[in-house]
Amino acid sequence: MNCFIHDRSAAVGLCSVCQKALCRECVGREAPRLVCRTCIQQPVFLGFEYRSSATIGGWPLVHICSGVDPVTMRPRVAKGVIAIGNVAVGGVAIAGVACGLLTIGGVSFGLLFALGGAAVGLGLSVGGLAVGSIALGGAAIGLVHAIGGAAFGPSIINGRRCDAAAVEFVRQWFGSGVLPPNCR
Question: What is the pLDDT of residues 57-100, one digit of tens each?
Fold first, then answer.
């Protein structure tokens, strides 16, 4: 097999990004994966990244990124006070997989608040599957209160049962209009 650009030179391998054969002269980076010079020079092809110059505690105020790192071929991770991306870690994290204090994502791990398809947190968790001190969701597992279709915890509201402590919590924060008919 010969190089894609230099058709008379023997190829040393395939670029892990564009999958084209390349010779020694066309190699942009060898480790940990073989990447051609064209792909190294065009990182926008593999995603987007913005990092604000303002920082708090060494973390950028805003970090937004998506795509994969062209060298490691791993997803880029947004890390910042406000982090947005496919994978995000930060004070406020918004992503497919989010981890931080306040999180929104497909899979969300939040210390104070987690919202997502699967939300896990120490505070309030809201999602299809919610696990937390106060859990609201289709399947809710709460350490204090659990409210949902299938609710598990010390104080629950579900289709069959309404505990007095959970009813009082809902009335205090949301009003009695949101309680299911079997709890009024």
Answer: 999 999 999 987 766 778 899 999 999 999 999 999 999 999 99
pTM of the model: 0.74
177 and 167 Cβ atoms separated by less than 8 Å: no
Tokens matching residue 87: 């994978």
**Maximum pairwise Cα distance, the chain:** 82
Residue 47 exposed, middle or buried by CB count within 10 Å (0-12, 13-18, 19+): middle
Tokens found for residue 182: 């079997």
Alpha carbon distance 169, 176 (integer Å): 10
3-state secondary structure of 137: strand
Of 121, 79, 87, 91, which is closest to residue 105 (Cα–Cα)? 87
